[in-house]
Amino acid sequence: MYNILICDDEKDIVNALKIYLSNEEYCFLEAYNGQEAVRMVKEQEIHLIIMDIMMPIMDGMEAMKKIRESSNVPVILLTAKGEDTDKILGLNTGADDYITKPFNPMEVNARVKSQLRRYMQLGSGEKRETVLQIGGIELNDRKKSVTLDGEPVNLTPTEFDILKLFMKNPERVFSPGEIYELVWKDLPYGSEGTVAVHIRHLREKLEINPADPRYLKVVWGQGYKMERGLKHEK
C-alpha cells in the first residue's frame, strides 16, 4: 500500500485526482494548503506527494522547501498550462516532476507510477548489494545511498537515478532526451530544461566547484557524461 498525499486548495481537484488514480494499492491523504502538507509528512509515512503551487497560508514552493529539509519523498507539482517559470522554479526547489493542468488521466497515472517505482524498492529481484564507485563518489543501489569522500549526500529519487545512470556508464555521453527517456520513462518533449536543472543540483551536491565540475561534464552540442576514475562493482 502506497500513501499518496494530494495537496490542493480546490477540493474538486483533489477528488478528481483520486478518481484518476483509483487503485487498490493507493491510500490517499488530503491537504488543502502547504502548511497541512508539511505537518502530514512529519506525522505519517508518505510515499508520494502531488501538490499545487498556488495555495493559501503556505504555497507549494515554500512547503516543498520545508519538506526537503527532512524528506526525499517524491514531489509532483501541479502547474498551470504554459507556466514554464513555475515548472523550472519547482524543479529548482526540489520537485521531481510536474503535471500540467488540465490533467490527462493517463499522464497522471504514468508519472505517479514512475515516481513510486523509483522511490520504492519493489519486486523480487536480486537482493545482492551493488556498489558503484567513481573517484570519491560511492553509490549503494540497494540501500539507495550516496556518499562523497565518505560523507553522506542527500539526493532526491530523481537525482539518484540520474547519478546511477551516469555511474553505470562512465565516459558515455547522454543527450538530455536520452536521460529523460531512461530516467523518467517518458517521451522527451521539452525535457532539456528539466534535465539541466537536475544536473545542476547534482553538481551542487557532488562537486567542489560546480562551475568547474570534476565528475559531471557537459559535452557541448551533445549532452552530459561522467568523467574520471574507474567504476567498481562489489
What does this structure look like?
The protein folds into two domains: 2-119, 3-Layer(aba) Sandwich (Rossmann fold), CATH 3.40.50.2300; 131-233, Winged helix-like DNA-binding domain superfamily/Winged helix DNA-binding domain (Arc Repressor Mutant, subunit A), CATH 1.10.10. The chain has helices at 11-20, 34-43, 60-68, 84-93, 105-119, 157-168, 176-184, 192-206; strands spanning 2-7, 26-31, 48-52, 75-80, 97-101, 131-134, 137-140, 145-148, 151-153, 216-219, 223-226, 232-233. The radius of gyration is 18 Å and the shape is globular. It is an alpha/beta fold and 234 residues long. The longest helix is centred in the middle third of the chain and has 15 residues, at 105-119. The protein is 38% helix and 23% strand. Strands 2-1-3-4-5 form a five-stranded parallel sheet, sandwiched between helices. Strands 9-8-7-6-12 form a five-stranded antiparallel sheet, covered by helices on one side. The two termini are 32 Å apart. Mean pLDDT is 84; it is low at 122-128 and 230-234. Helix 3 links the parallel strand 3 (48-52) and strand 4 (75-80).
Name the descriptors.
disordered C terminus; Arc Repressor Mutant, subunit A; 23% strand; alpha/beta; 234 residues; 8 helices; single chain; 12 strands; Rossmann fold
